[in-house]
């Protein structure tokens, strides 16, 4: 009887570990998706700013995108689509 309880407990522990591993994998995938969405948002905000400032030419946009950094936004601090600032990450 004790062995049956230990076996049942071991099975539950293995199941919990498997679930945790799957969840960690999903969290990592979601973090990457979030990072990609934030990059896309920064790019779009930069394009909007260039258009508003009258610097919306394709050459200026290409130069800015080639630098890999988004310009400061006229909409305040960079806010993620999840309501947190980038500095929270």
Question: Notable features of this structure?
Answer:
89 residues, mainly alpha, 0% strand
Task: Give an overview of the whole structure.
The structure is a single chain. The protein is mainly α. The protein has one domain (about 1-65). Helix content is about 70%, strand content about 0%. The protein contains two helices and no strands. The protein has helices at about 1-50, 60-65. The longest helix has about 50 residues, at about 1-50. The protein is rod-shaped, with a radius of gyration of 23 Å. The model has no long low-confidence stretch (mean pLDDT about 80).
Report the sheet-strand fraction: under 5%
Report the count of strand segments.
Answer: 0
Helical residue percent band: 55-70%
Give the rounded overall mean pLDDT.
80
Could you state the oligomeric state of the chains shown?
single chain
Query: What class, by secondary structure content?
Result: mainly alpha
**Largest sheet, strands/sense/barrel:** none
Write down the secondary-structure element order: HH
Number of discrete helical segments: 2
List the uncertain runs: none
- Radius of gyration from CA coordinates: 23 Å
Q: How many separate structural domains?
A: 1
**Tell me, what's the shape?**
rod-shaped
> What is the terminal separation in angstroms?
50 Å
């Amino acid at each position: 009887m004790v062995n049956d309880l230990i076996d049942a407990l071991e099975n539950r522990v293995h199941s919990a570990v498997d679930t945790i591993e799957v969840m960690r994998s999903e969290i990592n995938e979601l973090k990457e998706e979030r990072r990609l969405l934030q990059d896309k948002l920064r790019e779009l905000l930069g394009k909007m700013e260039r258009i508003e400032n009258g610097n919306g030419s394709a050459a200026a946009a290409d130069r800015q995108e080639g630098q890999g950094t988004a310009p400061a936004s006229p909409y305040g601090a960079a806010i993620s689509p999840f309501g947190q600032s980038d500095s929270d990450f």
